[in-house]
Automatic annotation (TrEMBL):
Cited NCBIfam families: guan_deamin (TIGR02967), PRK09228.1 (NF006679)
Protein name as annotated: Guanine deaminase
Organism, as annotated: Acidiphilium rubrum
Highest classification ranks of the organism: Bacteria, Pseudomonadati, Pseudomonadota, Alphaproteobacteria, Acetobacterales
Keywords from the UniProt entry: Hydrolase, Metal-binding, Zinc
Pfam assignment, any one: Amidohydro_1
């Protein structure tokens, strides 16, 4: 029943956006993590006396074990069209996304993509994705079926869209509500799965649909809500046109009870101070999606306003595939750093790794279960190989501190750096031994 991992590990205990010093993390240069029934039983310095009789730890010397990464905003159905060229948000949606998403009325197609998506996520070290599905309930069933086979802690929801989309991708206010409610009843709280009410974004929902989305959010305890907010300038102008009674973009959602705890807003780039303050007050969450924001030319997210401020806003990290361009949170952090640079701000190595682990866990209200290597936490873990490529191996010879190691990993790193990924204690990805993973 009990298993063990041995090797260097790093886990955050505080928030480096508040105090970026050694008090915010726990690092063991030779650590031992004991795992019992999917959870961490103990985590500390390696001590053979702590090992139960007969338990031989899996040893990762010269690696770095960290909590599994969280990807708090992603679109699994867009995996087949990642890397679509040449357009900004609204044209990109019409030309590429809506074409692809129509295929998910076919549950067999949805299953194939969901499975491939989860395999790629695990290869990148992501153990908790929160994904949009499509408007088709089949796309949600396919996703959660595949995720539950792997025992993942993950969230998803049926996209609600009752206007400004092709006929094959529209529901109605009522069918969107009814189908979402059925799916939430089936999947929310089933194992480690959770459901997110998912109105795509304000322009593709009528007021009636947003109203019912708010109703559903209130009806089921602990439900999440996810949508997009203030990503692109043309989108902002369109929202102002469609909802003249709202004082700003956030207010559209607020009027329907869609701004609060466990409400996840992707992007949040072009916000007024009023909107920031309201997000903070409501304990709502924004999700920073750097590779997507650069790929679509959407803008530069203000991480400093979000997190280094008198009234910080809960902030998580997301890939936003298929506008995002990389499954690897290491690559996402590299772009987050560059966005901060372009704004004249800085993102420290500890702030970055916190953001992809405990910071996101807190922001999505799951820190009770994930985000740390500590007793009682789910045993969702990633083993990073600092010498994964010839370049990394050469660079590693010059690394003199933990902080430098982290920064090199996020600057040069990718899925190749992920040596192994553990989900609830089971090895679900092994870079060097693909056949050696749990079925
Ligand atoms: N806004 C509405 N839908 C989408 C989407 O699928 N991706 C992104 N990046 N923004 C959106
Ligand atoms: Zn998105």
């Amino acid at each position: 029943m009990v298993s063990a991992l041995r090797g260097p590990f790093l886990s955050y205990t505080g928030n480096p956006f508040e105090a970026d010093d050694p008090s915010c993390f726990h690092y063991e240069s030779d650590g031992l993590i004991l795992i019992d029934r999917g959870r961490i039983r103990s985590a500390g310095a390696y001590d053979p006396a702590v090992l139960p009789a007969g338990v031989v730890p899996v040893h990762y010397p010269d690696h770095l074990i960290i909590p599994g990464f969280i990807d708090a905003h992603v679109h699994y159905p867009q995996m087949p069209m990642i890397g679509a060229h040449g357009r900004q948000l609204l044209d990109w949606l019409n030309h590429y996304v809506f074409e692809t998403e129509q295929r998910y009325s076919d549950i067999d197609f949805a299953r194939i993509v969901a499975k491939a998506f989860l395999r790629e996520s695990l290869r990148a070290g992501v153990t908790t994705p929160i994904t949009y599905c499509t408007v088709h309930p089949e796309s949600v069933d396919a996703y959660f079926e595949e995720a539950s086979k792997l025992g993942l802690r993950t969230g998803a929801g049926k996209v609600m869209m009752d206007r400004n989309a092709p006929a094959g991708l529209r529901d109605t206010a009522q069918t969107g509500y009814d189908q979402s409610k059925r799916l939430a009843a089936r999947w929310h709280g089933h194992g480690r799965l959770f459901y997110a009410v998912t109105p795509r974004f304000a322009p593709t929902s009528t007021e009636a649909q947003l109203e019912l989305a708010g109703t559903l959010r209130r009806e089921i305890n602990g439900l999440y809500m996810q949508t997009h907010l203030s990503e692109n300038r043309a989108e902002l102008a369109w929202v102002a046109d469609l909802f003249p009674a709202s004082r700003d973009y956030l207010d559209v959602y607020d009027r329907f009870g869609l701004v609060g705890r466990r409400c996840l807003f992707g992007h949040a780039i072009h916000l007024s101070e009023r909107e920031w303050a309201r997000l903070a007050e409501a304990e709502a969450t924004v999700v920073h999606c750097p590779t997507s924001n650069l790929f679509l030319g959407s803008g530069l997210f203000n991480l400093k306003r979000a997190l280094v401020s008198a009234n910080p806003v809960r902030t998580a990290l997301g890939s936003d595939l298929g506008a995002g361009t990389n499954f690897s949170p290491l690559a996402t952090l590299a772009e987050a750093y560059k966005i901060a640079q372009l704004r004249g701000d800085a993102l420290s190595p500890h702030q970055a790794f916190y953001l992809a682990t405990l910071g996101s866990a807190r922001a999505i209200d799951q820190a009770e279960h994930i985000g740390r290597i500590a007793p009682g936490q789910d045993a969702d873990l990633v083993v990073l190989d600092p010498k994964a490529t010839p370049l990394l191996a050469a660079r590693h010879g010059f690394v003199t501190s933990l902080e430098e190691l982290l920064f090199v990993l996020m600057t040069l790193g990718s899925d190749r750096v992920v040596r192994a990924t553990y989900v609830a204690g089971y090895k679900r990805h092994d870079r060097d031994d693909p056949a050696g993973v749990a079925a």
